[in-house]
């Protein structure tokens, strides 16, 4: 099947799905990247959208050795703090309805943010807004993905949103790095900051 200049494969049965996902997975392992993905990830310089190959394997190795090691997991007291906080919230609402989905989302968001940046809530709302915009742009239908010569026209105004979103993330991460450098100079590091990913 073709959509514009792109070739598409339709998986319409369990047997074909098994072929694509298991038997021939190395052929289908590379995810297609639209204009938004290529732009926002600096041409796939991340683990989620990188082509399967040496770069992806190196990223995976780094994650396994540095981020997901047993020693690293044991050092994250912040995870235990966030779980305790969630349990206290549940305990405070005994006998009342609790939105479990919202609690789990908040827990995951807090743990991820603290692990990544070493701060509890400083700038978290801004970061969530940036990620939400990225998610919208990753999934947005862009005519230029299917008819490339329309790209210079930008009929949907997505190019301006892409530039704005990437600048917002770059500015946010730069401020986190600057904050870490400043704290390190002043020897004012929290325990979270010592074990975060910055």
From TrEMBL:
GO terms for molecular function: heme binding; iron ion binding; monooxygenase activity; oxidoreductase activity, acting on paired donors, with incorporation or reduction of molecular oxygen. InterPro entries: CYP450_84A (IPR053062), Cyt_P450 (IPR001128), Cyt_P450_sf (IPR036396). This is Ferulate 5-hydroxylase. It holds the Pfam family p450. Transmembrane segments: none annotated.
């Amino acid at each position: 099947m073709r959509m514009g200049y792109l070739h598409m494969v339709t998986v319409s049965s369990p047997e074909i799905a098994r072929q694509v996902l298991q038997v021939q997975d190395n052929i289908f392992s590379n995810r297609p990247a639209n204009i938004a993905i290529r732009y926002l990830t600096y041409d796939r310089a991340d683990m989620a959208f990188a082509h399967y190959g040496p770069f992806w394997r190196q990223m995976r190795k780094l994650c396994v050795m540095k981020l997901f090691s047993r020693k690293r997991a044991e050092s994250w007291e912040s995870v235990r703090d966030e779980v305790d906080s969630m349990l206290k919230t549940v305990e405070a609402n005994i006998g009342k309805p609790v939105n479990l989905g919202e609690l789990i989302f908040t827990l995951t968001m807090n743990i991820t943010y603290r692990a990544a940046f070493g701060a509890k809530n400083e700038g978290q709302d801004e970061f969530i807004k940036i990620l939400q915009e990225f998610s919208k742009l990753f999934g947005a239908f862009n005519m230029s993905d299917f008819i490339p010569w329309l790209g210079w026209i930008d009929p949907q105004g997505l190019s301006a949103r892409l530039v704005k979103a990437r600048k917002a993330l770059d500015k946010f991460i730069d401020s986190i790095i600057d904050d870490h450098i400043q704290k390190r100079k002043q020897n004012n590091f929290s325990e979270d900051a010592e074990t975060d990913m910055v």
